[in-house]
Amino acid sequence: MKNDIFWYGGKLIESRILELDINDPGLLYGATVFTTLRIYQNSLDSNLTNWQAHCDRLFFSVQSFGWQQPDWRRVRQGAQILLDHFPVLRITLFPDGREWITGRFLPEDLREKQKTGVVCAVASSEFYRSLPSHKTGNYLSAWLAKTTLDAQEAILVDAEGNWLETSTGNLWGWYDRSWWTPPRKAGILPGIVRSQLVNWLQNHQQSVLEEPWTLELVQRFEAIAYTNSVVEIIPIHTVHQPTGSLQYNPYHPSFLQIKELFVAS
What is the pTM of this model? Predict the structure, then answer.
């Protein structure tokens, strides 16, 4: 299995080097949009792969920015070729319509994290994501938050200290027989798994509350986790804050219901 191949501009390229013009805005300013998807059942058309939702995310951003739409048939062609080599694909679009698709493997410790949970730390409010409704190539703040803290994940906050999301996913908490997740209007990325999960839980008569995660609320949760299209759901057992650490139950029975989504679809 090759890991030194990628798709760029309608061509499959066997290399680990991508050549860009030195004045390319994607290089200079991070002027790209991207989405990352996990391939289920070796198919773009699997309900869990959710290909259309990922394309819709990209389309929304390209349209919002007034960029040139890519050749969507070519985007799918590249993804179809690369899924034979990788279980995870990252699709990036440039302002002029160029597409760039890379692949990677699932984290080796994913199952362990899903089982036992991870440690998070609350980041400084200066590490906010720009244009939070879009997944842009300017991901420096989230990357810095995750790599400069002594934790496996970072929790991004607003100016008032309300928890928004992790550096790579959306937050979920269990309290008072309900699931809670920060609202989109708070300034978070509308995650694809987040949307799937909200709909799935509501269809199973489970209460889902979209409320700001204040410093008071986060102390009430019995269990919390984060989700994204690659890792599915990962419990969080410890959150380090400037004022002390919070502990949560990574084995809470409420997680069993959420995990059903990834085997029932």
Answer: 0.94
